[in-house]
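Collaborator request log, item 7. Partner lab (contact: R.S.) asked for a structural prediction of Acyl-CoA dehydrogenase family protein to inform their binding assays.
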Amino acid sequence: MAVQTTDFYGLEELLDGEEREILHRVREFMAREVAPVITDHWVRATFPFEVVPGLAALGTAGLASDGPGGGRRRHLLDGMVAMEMARVDPSIATFHGVHSGLAMGSIRLCGSPEQQERWLPAMARWEKIGAFGLTEPEAGSGAAGGLTTTATRDGDEWVLDGEKKWIGNATFADLTVIWARDSDTDEVLGFVVEKGAPGFTTEAIGDKIALRVVQNAHITLDGVRVPETDRLQGARSFDDTGRVLRETRAGVAWMAVGCALGAYEHALAYAKEREQFGQKIAGFQLIQDLLVQMLGNTTASAALCVQLSRLQDAGVETDAQASLAKAFCTVRMRETVGFARELLGGNGILLDHQVGRFVADAEAIYSYEGTREINTLIVGREITGVGAFV
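Returned to partner:
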């Protein structure tokens, strides 16, 4: 497919030569290794572990890091990688984002130098896979004040008790970052729990209609003992948790662009092949209108994400800027995948035509990492100076 039909304004040219090579390797890997198998895994709700070695060889974990296990800060490349993965499969993009963004990001932003050296290089090589445990059964959007998982100091150890829900990668992760409330100070602290820790159990969440390839878990922590050396030394309050979410929220905006782009590309290819009334439907005015609206949505969203990534690379992005990108891009994504399904008519609900998978997966991207409503309130508070939270 010609580049100009997707990257309409040549945003990829903003990357330098080395970065474009990395992006092209990701594109080729996703087309060669993921695209042929992903629909089958989506139907069976299984994870394609066979692609992990190839994913590791891409060297994309920790791209936005300037510490151990990373390189120079390259948020623009990191974002475009998330987009490239999501345009083939949003689940693989989510798996990568949880590991590289949320788990590695927690350690990079909140871990001591010793902890960063201990965990991040192995995670960058995918020798240890990470998960991020914040959301709880009764605390999603209200996690800042409603977190109920507790951490109680006992000598040189901490005892963790509580539950977590919707935790991606957690059924098989080697390291899971758990956020818990200090029983004494009421502040939110971060801990790295290793796979197999006594009292740490995971149950896969099934019967999902979106991101079926992602292995989400319900975690139970029953007297899990974690040494003080595994408490993230720089995590002292929920503000530190928020620093991680600010970084990764931009990545989710890029994933939304990729999800929309994938649906658009399949719809465009379909329009060029499908015939009705004796001609290709690509020549119908209403079809071209849908395609141009999809292209406009993806292009505008990508351009917004480019500037956000530049702000990240400069270290000056704000919570509100990240929230606006996440809210805007996911709304435009939802509209775009709907247009793609509309273009395909009845065929749009068949997985053989791919678009239905993007329509379903978009629903999860629309909600995680802050709902549209919560992100809107963050931006609203910034521009009015008045908090409208409950």
